[in-house]
Design a protein that fits this description.
278 residues, alpha+beta, Translation Initiation Factor IF3, four-stranded mixed beta sheet, 6 helices, 8 strands, UPF0145_YbjQ-like
């Protein structure tokens, strides 16, 4: 690592700090960068937010291994913790960049994993999004930032973000849960007895069900810590990565939201029937 690459006290590399300095509002040379499409950019502006700049966080992480019993369904805790911590590092660094810009939030966040060819156990976790600043305070005052006083994060599209604000809700943060799970191997005689038959495999059903429930419950716990009313845009993904067919990561992610007003409610749409003769 060169001197220019060294992280500052904020955890943001020095080169990134210089890039962010040119994007701070009020600078004579300030200009924003964004990965939003043209339509998304216009809708974010229509929702009352001004893009400040593209922010990112990265973590190259060594994902270890864990020995488990082949004939037993079980979570691999060491791997679950590694996959969660690596993503959290990337997200935290992205939020630190947004904080340096004085942003109220980050929209259009993408959270990706890329395994590196120079090491089978090395993966880069990358978080990228567009930092935005609100043109006005929320209707009941206060801040658009979340309860941890950090910029909100959202992986909603520009269209969904606009719709959320119009409906009277605000994003609090991206919440996630992960579970790396090993599905038990079938014995040879059991596998042979199933040949040519339509039959449920209970150990597979139970294992996959348990793994998804663990990921979902952890995502919900993060939303509760943000005092969210709910989670929108939830996606539940299964990743095999490089562990083999019997070990899979289940990853749940979504955007936690809150109403902008304590007495907020969404009006019930009225059904209008066409007039008929007679």
């Amino acid at each position: 690592m060169t001197e220019s690459d060294a992280p500052t006290a904020t955890g943001v590399p020095s080169d990134a700090m210089r890039r962010l300095a040119h994007m701070r509002p009020g600078q004579a040379t300030s200009m924003f960068t964004s990965d939003l499409s043209v339509n998304e950019f216009l809708l974010v502006r229509e929702a009352g937010f001004r893009p400040l700049g593209l922010v990112l966080g990265s973590s190259i992480y060594h994902v270890g291994f864990q020995v488990g019993r082949w004939g037993k369904n079980q979570e691999l805790d060491t791997l679950s913790q590694a996959m969660y911590h690596a993503r959290e590092l990337a997200m935290t660094r992205m939020e630190a960049e947004a904080d340096q810009l004085g942003a109220d939030g980050i929209v259009g966040v993408r959270l990706d994993i890329e395994f590196k060819e120079f090491g089978n156990d090395l993966a880069e976790f990358i978080a990228v999004g567009t930092a935005v600043s609100a043109e006005s305070a929320p209707p009941e005052g206060g801040s658009w930032r979340n309860v941890h006083r950090q910029p909100f994060t959202s992986d909603l599209s520009g269209q969904d973000f606009w719709t959320l604000i119009q409906a009277g809700y605000a994003p609090l943060g991206m919440v996630m849960g992960t579970c790396v799970y090993h599905i038990a191997h079938q014995g040879m005689f059991r596998a042979m007895s199933n040949i040519g038959q339509n039959v449920e495999l209970p150990q597979y059903t139970e294992g996959l069900y348990d793994a998804r429930e663990l990921a979902m419950s952890r995502m919900q716990a993060e939303a509760e810590a943000l005092h969210a009313e709910g989670i929108v845009g939830v996606r539940l993904r299964a990743h095999g990565h490089r562990w083999g067919g019997h070990t899979t990561e289940f990853f749940a992610i979504g955007t936690a939201v809150r109403p902008l007003r304590a007495d907020h409610h969404i009006p019930t749409p009225q059904l209008v029937l066409p007039l008929t003769d007679g």
